[in-house]
Amino acid sequence: MVTQGNHDMESYLVDEAESFMAYNARWLMPYKQSGSTSNLYYSFDVAGGVHIIMLGSCTEFELGSDQYKWLVADLDAIDRKATPWVIVSVHMPWYNTNYEHQGDGEGMRLAMEELLYRARVDVVFAGHVHAYERFVSLY
Length: 139
Known about the structure:
- By secondary structure, this protein is of the alpha/beta class.
- Helix content is 22%, strand content 14%.
- The protein has helices spanning 21-26, 66-76, 106-118, and strands at residues 42-46, 50-54, 85-90, 123-126.
- Strands 1-2-3-4 form a 4-stranded mixed β-sheet, with no helix packed on it.
- The longest helix has 13 residues, at 106-118.
- It is globular and about 40 Å long.
- The two termini are 29 Å apart.
């Protein structure tokens, strides 16, 4: 299961709907099954009570956007008694100490972080910065 990133954007195209043509042709994800209208963000369940949400860092995410409205509905539909684990994946990290990538995910963080807090999301995984970093000790 994958989510798009900045390297998947075909920058020579102006229309956002067409800027992920190669990604959408190669990586058809189960977005319709999760109620999403876009292959760029979706969710799925994994055995053992895990709900995984793949968010699109490189598509509209602001309040009122299709992705934002979908995320609200997706989070609201989770039964935490049956699904104790909720994991989110984004491409651009909302927090990092890499000087070259400071603030890359800030707009998305401002738009969506509170939704994840309220839903008690357990873990968020991010990519984009080609270096390992964690915020909490593993022991």
